[in-house]
Amino acid sequence: MTRLVYGFGDGTSDGNARMSDLLGDKGADLAEMCRIGLPVPPGFTLSTEVCSYFFAHGHSFPPSLKDEVEAALAAVGRITGRQFGDATAPLLVAVRSGSRTPMPGMLASVLNVGLNDAVVAAIGRTDGDAFAFDSYRRFIQAYADVVMGVERDELEEILDLYKDDNGHLLDTDLSAADWRAVVDLYKARVSEATGQPFPQDPHVQLWGAIAAVIRSWMNARAATYRKLHDIPESWGSAVTVQAMVFGNRGEHSAAGVAFTRNPSTGEKLLYGEYLPDALGEEVVSGFRSPHDLTETARQLSLSEHAALETSMPGPFARFAAICGELERHFRDMLDVEFVIEQGELWMLQCRRARRSTKAALRIAVDMVAEGLIDAREALTRIDPLSLEQLLHPSVDPEAHRHILATGLPASPGAATGEIVFSAEDAAAAAHAGRAVILVRSDTSPEDIHGMHAAKGVLTTRGGMTSHAAVVARGIGTPCVCGASVLRVDRAQGILTAGATRLKKGDVITIDGSTGQVLLGRAAMLRPELTGDFATLMGWADSCRRLGVRANADTPADARVARGFGAEGIGLCRTEHMFFEHGRIVAMREMILADSEDGRRAALAKLLPMQRADFVDLFEIMHGLPVTIRLLDPPLHEFLPKSPADVIDVAAAMGVPAERLIERAEHLREENPMLGHRGVRLAISHPEIYEMQARAIFEAAAVVAKSQGVAVVPEIMVPLVGMVEELDLVKTLIDRVAAAVARETGVSVRYSIGTMIELPRAVLRAGDIARTAEFFSFGTNDLTQTTYGLSRDDAAGFLEAYAARGIMAKDPFATLDTEGVGEFIRIATGRGRATRPDIKLGICGEHGGDPASIRFCDEVGLDYVSCSPFRVPIARLAAAQATIKGT
Amino acid sequence: MTRLVYGFGDGTSDGNARMSDLLGDKGADLAEMCRIGLPVPPGFTLSTEVCSYFFAHGHSFPPSLKDEVEAALAAVGRITGRQFGDATAPLLVAVRSGSRTPMPGMLASVLNVGLNDAVVAAIGRTDGDAFAFDSYRRFIQAYADVVMGVERDELEEILDLYKDDNGHLLDTDLSAADWRAVVDLYKARVSEATGQPFPQDPHVQLWGAIAAVIRSWMNARAATYRKLHDIPESWGSAVTVQAMVFGNRGEHSAAGVAFTRNPSTGEKLLYGEYLPDALGEEVVSGFRSPHDLTETARQLSLSEHAALETSMPGPFARFAAICGELERHFRDMLDVEFVIEQGELWMLQCRRARRSTKAALRIAVDMVAEGLIDAREALTRIDPLSLEQLLHPSVDPEAHRHILATGLPASPGAATGEIVFSAEDAAAAAHAGRAVILVRSDTSPEDIHGMHAAKGVLTTRGGMTSHAAVVARGIGTPCVCGASVLRVDRAQGILTAGATRLKKGDVITIDGSTGQVLLGRAAMLRPELTGDFATLMGWADSCRRLGVRANADTPADARVARGFGAEGIGLCRTEHMFFEHGRIVAMREMILADSEDGRRAALAKLLPMQRADFVDLFEIMHGLPVTIRLLDPPLHEFLPKSPADVIDVAAAMGVPAERLIERAEHLREENPMLGHRGVRLAISHPEIYEMQARAIFEAAAVVAKSQGVAVVPEIMVPLVGMVEELDLVKTLIDRVAAAVARETGVSVRYSIGTMIELPRAVLRAGDIARTAEFFSFGTNDLTQTTYGLSRDDAAGFLEAYAARGIMAKDPFATLDTEGVGEFIRIATGRGRATRPDIKLGICGEHGGDPASIRFCDEVGLDYVSCSPFRVPIARLAAAQATIKGT
Predict the structure, then answer these.
(1) Is the pLDDT of residue B132 over 70?
(2) How far apart are CA B773 and CA A342, in angstroms?
(3) Which residues of chain B have a CB within 8 Å of the CB of A823?
């Protein structure tokens, strides 16, 4: 028979800290504290298996549970010298939930279980009726709510009415008689609402409380929280039953909470609050201002209340010593709760404390210096994603926020600026030195220069991988996407947020880390890359197996990427080079040309510009690998869309608007994602890739001569589904390389590879690897084709999926390991079977997602490539993957 | 040392009919005829290995070849009593190509090799100078062209000039002296053009001819033909060298060609033509009208020329006997060439004859009756695709055709009618009893009623799987797609074909079997499903393993499908039911509704209509399985597109046009193929599938009561990528089924399954099969997602793929076995691993393609489903697959 109940108290315990699967985090940590001899009120924990049994058996308990609970309760009685329901020395218990990981405030708990009319009288005799009946009414209120389904407000209302009727203002104004009267009113209301009297049998109370705590595992709030935090329903909650201790038993009593270090800065100083003669819930409720723990803190806060260090020096010294002992034992910064009951210190909880990223870094680095942990352990202590907080400016969490709307946190960081509604206005304003936020329903490649010019981007449509989001992340511009309650009227120049109408020039702030859109200017915190950050990154680099590159299209990107430690460029999207002013004209000339000769003439104009781009990139990367993807998007993306733009462009080009419209109509596609793009452009218009290859080789020759550094371009062909496509392009590239080598006298070493972004490419990876020297998994498109899901269109209906719990995670943010992941495994296997030394990387958005990076490490890719601002995250995540894998 | 030369003659031969890989079809059949004792001029064949060697070794011959050829030539000399180059009894030979399968007219041949100034004199002495020099000038002309690169026309011109100068009109007017003069002029011209004299050494001539015949394997015409007919370049051509015989040696000589049965009707009667005192090339040249072979034929043709049967009764009797013997030997209808040289019959060629589909059926069935072949063999004799000729009306091949354009043969059959440019006009004209052709740049679901009303559909955009093509094939309407040289000006009502401008009401004919668009009315042949057709289909049904179902959406479809022998409906697309007049209004109301209640109210109007549809279908199918696919397309497909339509629809619905525009804008998608459709609609709008499920179960209950037949609907959920999606829908369907069972008292047996049309569904097939009771491979969409290729957009750029030889076949027409096919294998394996009795079928366009059907049989699917008009093709192809697999 499996054990279901684990006792603790008086320096021994059945459980320990490693048993949080069975005992929940709270139960396990209490057992551990007890085990190492700390003062913990005795109690016992019903394991999570009870919870599983309960839901699997129509809300009933395992048969053996009753005896185990009775025995454990008796043990608590022996330690405390009190008996449950005893009218002389009664035992009261707290019944609390406990899941494997904290779910603060989500699950139920009931304190003071064991109180009834007889027991309250007994307590009154020893501690006074005021204390006794106050406790009783708190218990009734909680029990009625949690166990019997009588809303807390209903009883609260009775208390308010009683105070009004009797001229009392504060709870403390009530006498014992008042509380007694309130308790009677409460009991009457419960009886009326439920048709049964408030239970007087402490055992009935106990089992009622246990069942209610377990039931709360399935309440709606908890279910939502689990979904948000990836907590499996199957884990269940443990239930800890523990002898009550009271911080409100007079002047020698107190309750408090503390962090063993400063959770904002990480400074190694005890940090916390307490209240004398109070319950723990009062410390955190905000009704009374809590006092400082240490004299140092009191001096800083200018508080007139004595610090615990001064008011109760004995218990404080014991507490401070215990905090140190706990840190050494758990080797981490902790968050603890304590009670001092008539001079005696009790530890009620201890758990790993939440902390700011800055604090986390400092604590990890400090603890390595203190010898508490080693560098590998320190690396696992930091959530890679939390580093984003450090890399971008952020809205001061203390600042007032007037929230206009909340969209998707598409690109981290915050930005304040004047509203503009067009890329042109953004560029003009930036030129005039004004900070602007580009506000659009959605963006297209034509907006790129505006996105570069703006301090932030806000869209009302599109998801985390919409054009705006991808580009913004790529260039490190804060962005909020899909703020669908906002309405953009571009023609009128109006942005409507409910009743608020904003116009061009009005100031807003966007917080790309939370998705909030704020009215006006918000106070900001600047990024600070401290020495701790650099130290930790150094450890990460010496630990990780995976290489980390950046997706960088421009010299600015490349500089940021190198600054953040990228080891190369894993994806340079050449099409972005064609959208720049002056270039798009030549690009459009090419598209409008009727013949190959006409196209070649236009491409000849683009050649020197593209070559100059590559020269810049190669110089910045100084010999690091640069993977250049040849032109990918369909040609119609380069043509103007709106009638007004068509007229402007036609006039500027000196061609009839009809010509432009006709060409656009001819190029129009039902499903551009599945259309005439990528290598398909090279099959129909080989001269484009030919120009690009020439620009690459000529640039490499220039840099080889000027810097004396060998540039090794990796030329990547997108959208390959058949090896025949790649063969054709390789022939073309090899021919151009030979020609440039003859012309310049510089023979450039280069490799040719392909994106793996189509399911067919996955299946034919064995063939394709005969020609391809590297694969880069384009997991954005591969996710689209695997799911048959357009990322431009998915945001709307995937909400329904999330709401119905069908899709746990956005597959465009975190790699779908069951689908896309299997394809990566297949392609990796088949590619390596043909060419064992084939270089394998990933360049989709997933390259910057820690969970996906772990997968990439596991399947044995050589590197990940991500946006420049994600590079530190990827370095850390890669290190964690190595640590977890060994 | 491998043998390179295979001799034949005088009743023996080194080769036989099974050696066409080595000897080519011609060489193998000559060897076989010789082997069975038929009169064949002796000769020898250089194997295809000589060809392979030739191209692999810089156009040189294997070292041992010369000796083998000399020996074989000597053997021919022994049989004929003539020697090559001998001035008394000279041997002349024909040098002919021969690939494994016939490539008529593609490769070179040279006759009369061995003629020179000395030999011509010798022949002149025995056969007269006119014959001798005519032969010589023919030889020079051919040799100069094929071997020496002097254009045939250059020498032809010399002859024409000579005739003009000398007042001759016909070749027969020329005397021996004239021919001698012409020969001299020819030789002079050759010498002038090539800088070398015409070769006089017969061995030089022979090797020149052999090399030229081999080289012709690589000429451009042959390469194109090979690509079109899937003939590998590696096969190469054999070369047959054979003693010349002459049908132009006087009144007892003749040349002729014959089919052993009538190639149009299949009737068992010798059918052919001959000319007395003529060469074979003259019989087929058209300069002289050939005469009939048999007296019966002569009487029918009212010819005044004697039949061969009468003019040369002895050789004829021998020839007729040989034809019978050949048929018994080859067990097929043959196409033969013969020469009668001074009363002696020689067989020059025999091969399997081309025939009409009608003839092929009759011959196959007759030969089974005659005991020549068995039924299984008969089944393999018919090209399944050729059956299409029988199922649709066709343009009389004899009729005059004024071709306006040639597009893609998108849906077979021919149709004549007045041009209309809108679905509305088509419907109105059909209502008025006029035949119309609906002409559009492309079609959308709103055009469906017009496509039903029209006799044929013509589009200027889109490929073989464009909307127009798919719908047209589905409903059996002839269709030509992507006739891109045509221009449709819908506003003006003008169709422009080059200089021809046609307007609404002008009559055109489209031939959906060839892709031709013809001006005016063309003569038609009606379909005839003869008894032979039924006999063969019966054999096919008793032989095949695969089931054959039809894709049928309407009662009309279902009736056609049953008429063609479908064993059920494999795909009923319910969305087509919503486009019908009266229904689309309710559908649009649902789409415009703001709330679930509003949607339910609109759906309630659709329920009785949809139920009635299913009642009809179930009644027609009378207990056969019906697979119903729940709504698949995105909702925006049901909204009007053009501004004019929007205004009309808004007025009709009584809603502001802005409302409709706003909704359409909200629903607009970048990539509808990858958008909010299929099961995704059910996740966001479960009430739609709920209505559909109710309609199905209520209809099944109605039919169960009225017909007493148990209807077993197979409910198919489209676009599933995760089992969770299917689970949700299954719960909904099961709930509706239980409710309808309670209400009607009829419990309907049903199964729930899914389309496998996304790569992710393939990978997760094991999970999905936990819920799905059947899989139907939706290979249209699976091909799109596997390749990342939009079939609506692919037509344009896949031309470049075809031109560069990258993609051998349209993957939307013939299954991509290397990509999509591997997915079918994977899903089949994983699905069966979970659920061994899972039912597996295919319902994409490939279900009607013979090559794809063979694949489906091989991977073990249970059935294929195709358009009704493809059902007979699928039945035959399935039978052939079974035969090939055993």
Answers:
(1) yes
(2) 69
(3) 759, 763
Q: Do B804 and A728 touch (CB under 8 A)?
A: yes
Query: B13: part of which helix (H) or strand (E)?
Result: strand B12-13
A256 CA: distance to closest CA in chain B (Å):
47
Average pLDDT estimate for B562-580: 90
Q: Tens digits of per-residue pLDDT, B745-773?
A: 999 999 999 999 999 999 999 999 999 99
Do the chains contact at B785 and A781, CB–CB below 8 Å? no
Other beta carbons within 10 Å of B581: 8
Beta-strand relationship, B863-866 and B839-842: parallel
Question: How would residue B528 be classed by pLDDT, with cut points 50, 70 and 90?
Answer: low
Pairing of strands A569-573, A547-551: parallel
User: Which of A789, A820, A822, A830 is best to mutate for the B interface (most B CBs within 10 A)?
Assistant: A789
Q: Do A797 and B684 touch (CB under 8 A)?
A: yes
Six token digits for residue A400: 């007032």
Q: With residue A125 as reference, give the H or E element that holds it.
A: helix A117-127
DSSP helix/strand/coil, A266: coil
Residues B409-432 have a mean pLDDT of 87
Closest Cα of chain A to B734: distance in Å? 18
The confidence score (pLDDT) of residue B735 equals 97
Cα separation of A84 and A808, whole Å? 45
With CA atoms as reference, the chain B residue closest to A721 would be B787
Tell me if B797 and A684 make a contact (CB, 8 A cut-off): yes
Would you name the residues of A annotated as active-site residues? 467, 843
Q: State which amino acid sits at residue B531.
A: G
If you write DSSP's letter for every residue of A495-553 in order, what string do you get?
EEETTEEEETT-EEEEETTTTEEEES---EE-----HHHHHHHHHHHHH--SEEEEE--
The Cβ of residue A268 has, within 10 Å, a number of other Cβ atoms equal to 16
Backbone angles phi, psi at B147, to 5 degrees: -95, -40
Cross-chain Cβ contact B788/A728 below 8 Å: no
ipTM: 0.80
3-state secondary structure of B258: strand
> Phi and psi (nearest 5°) for B686?
-60, -25
CB atoms within 10 A of CB A194: 14
The model's pTM = 0.81
Q: Which residues of B touch A658 (CB under 8 A)?
A: none
φ/ψ of B313, rounded to 5, equals: -60, -35
Judging contacts by C-beta atoms under 8 Å, the chain B residues touching residue A822 are 763
pLDDT, mean of each 10-residue run, chain A (886 residues): 90 93 94 96 96 94 96 96 90 94 86 95 90 93 93 88 88 86 94 94 96 93 80 93 94 94 89 91 76 92 91 97 96 95 95 86 96 96 86 82 88 90 87 88 81 91 75 80 88 88 93 90 78 94 97 90 94 87 86 89 94 95 96 92 84 87 88 96 95 97 91 96 96 97 95 98 98 97 96 84 83 94 98 98 94 96 94 96 90
Q: For A724, which of B669, B806, B819 is closest by C-beta distance?
A: B806
Counting Cβ atoms within 10 Å, is residue A644 exposed (0-12), middle (13-18) or buried (19+)? Answer: exposed
**Cβ atoms A28, A17 nearer than 8 A:** yes
Q: B721 and A819: CB-CB below 8 Å?
A: yes
Catalytic residues of B: 467, 843
- Nearest by CB to B790, from A675, A806, A816: name it: A675
DSSP string, A275-329: EET--HHHHHHSSSPPEESSHHHHHHHT-SSPPHHHHSHHHHHHHHHHHHHHHHH
* Chain A residues with beta carbon closer than 8 angstroms to that of B759: 759, 785-786, 788, 819, 823
Is B764's CB within 8 Å of A819's CB? yes
Q: Whole-number mean pLDDT of chain B?
A: 91
Task: For residue A861, give the 3-state DSSP assignment.
Answer: coil
